[in-house]
């Protein structure tokens, strides 16, 4: 088939599948296409391409590989693409814009974000927004977010009245759906959704963080508010693909026909308020594996959910700190420090050597839960089955955080 005919066929197939007005089923899975879920009056692919880890060649984005990835995604119905201002040294928007410019605009869903961290004045919101449209070669964004709301950016969100700025774009047709991506505390999330009306939100979720870093609590909060979720970091930045040997053996013994990536993605997608799972795929093999997961998608069984919990506990006990997250320490801590969460994050950091993700997740904890609040009373030590010197370990971790 000629390339022009291939693109034309993709266009025809997707035009019919994007609109779902009157559709009775919340999920559909046509032959050769990935599973889709209904969101308002459109059909959302359950898998989206996150454009933060694009293929690289000679320190440049490999456009040939990216075009191949985009073509395969669209051919199989995975037509949601998520980029951001800062991704790939400010080049992600340009690259995905070029790749998608070969298609009709109605045949893909494009998400971008307003970079709170880089705003110096309210006028920067529109300046950057117009720049993003040009880079992506589009006239509007299907999904647009206030990016990375956390303890360091929330004041800017309020100071520059970002919500109403985004609302103007929506009324002008420059944004179809407005939302936010979040890396803050549960208390901050509650305030954010109580004070504003959102079409969707983006949360960090995976089976390791479900209980440890309050992902479950935050997911249930937005679910109650009827705000659909797009998931980021479903595989913990690749950490849940490279499992410790004991965890990998557990997975293979319980689920011999699955892979760590397949297992992690299915776990996240099994939460019914999730409309799309983002995966930062960086080569065509990853694209094919993940699309296969959602072409042949099956909701997790209770037995598989239990396996995920057991694997999470194994991961938590790996690394430098032998913590099993029994939470006996938190029962007696007078300051309410989230000791198991801190230790789990630190262990993952030491396994992956990715400090950036460690700091992002650590800063999502409430201020009262952080290691800096330890008063070294030592009450936790007497309750620890692993005989850990918890105050000493918290001081060590706090030092890492301070160093940044």
SSE topology sketch:
Blueprint lengths: L2 H16 L8 E2 L7 E4 L2 E4 L1 E4 L5 E2 L2 E2 L1 H13 L4 E3 L4 H4 L1 H9 L8 E7 L7 H14 L4 E9 L4 H6 L2 H10 L3 E8 L3 H10 L4 E5 L4 H4 L2 H10 L4 E4 L12 H10 L5 H10 L4 E6 L4 H12 L6 H15 L11 H5 L6 H14 L2 H9 L15 H5 L6 H14 L1
Parallel strand pairs: 4-7, 4-13, 7-8, 8-9, 9-10, 10-11, 11-12, 12-13
Antiparallel strand pairs: 1-2, 2-3, 5-6
Helix pairs in contact: 2-4, 2-13, 4-5, 8-10, 11-14, 12-13, 16-17
Structural account:
- It is globular and about 65 Å long.
- By secondary structure, the chain is of the alpha/beta class.
- The protein has helices at residues 3-18, 63-75, 87-90, 92-100, 123-136, 154-159, 162-171, 186-195, 209-212, 215-224, 245-254, 260-269, 284-295, 302-316, 328-332, 339-352, 355-363, 379-383, 390-403, and strands at residues 27-28, 36-39, 42-45, 47-50, 56-57, 60-61, 80-82, 109-115, 141-149, 175-182, 200-204, 229-232, 274-279.
- Residues 1-25 have low confidence and may be disordered.
- An 8-stranded parallel barrel has the order 4-7-8-9-10-11-12-13, surrounded by 5 helices.
- It has 2 domains: 3-308, TIM Barrel (Alpha-Beta Barrel); 317-403, no CATH class.
- Strand 5 (56-57) and strand 6 form a beta hairpin.
- Helix content is 47%, strand content 15%.
